[in-house]
Amino acid sequence: MALKKTLAISFLMMMALCGVSMATVYQVGDSAGWTSMGQVDYQDWAANKNFHVGDILVFNYNNQFHNVKQVKRQGFESCNATSPIATYTNGSDTVTLEKLGHFYFICGYPGHCQAGQKIDVFVAPPTSNLSPVTSPQSSPSGSSSLYFSNLSWSLGVLLAFCLSGLAY
């Protein structure tokens, strides 16, 4: 009886751990960072990423020459930073994407947004319950991701099958 209880608790803990996903950390602009020097097409950079709730954006920049302002769509389109949702100024800012939808960021220094220092990040819903789990780690593209296959799900099913045999 104690063995069945221990196995059942172990199974529940494993299933809970398998369901936990960690955020993907993205350094905006990869190694170039957040700059107006024309080295990065931020719209192209964002278009090649799959952002999800809980992911983290890291803005690295020289705070003597740049900042990050989160704005509404209208402020993004017109490069107007006068009514930001949030302002970041320390030079190494992290922003957690906490909901679905568009997040708009611009540099508030004169002329920088117009020069292309702006980004529209779209946070999409997960495609399925069996989507890959991500975890922070460095990679050449600047996005951090570690993908697990359906192995954890398969192990959970296998363990459930084994436990069902112990119940008799």
Automatic annotation (TrEMBL):
Alphabetized UniProt keyword annotations: Copper, Electron transport, Glycoprotein, Membrane, Metal-binding, Signal, Transmembrane, Transmembrane helix, Transport
Transmembrane segments: 146-167
Keyword Electron transport in record: yes
Electron transport listed as a keyword: yes
GO CC terms, sorted: plasma membrane
Residue ranges occupied by any Phytocyanin domain in the UniProt entry: 24-125
InterPro entries recorded: BlueCu_1_BS, Cupredoxin, Phytocyanin-like, Phytocyanin_dom
Signal peptide: 1-23
Superkingdom of the organism of origin: Eukaryota
Sample GO molecular function, one term: electron transfer activity
Protein name: Phytocyanin domain-containing protein
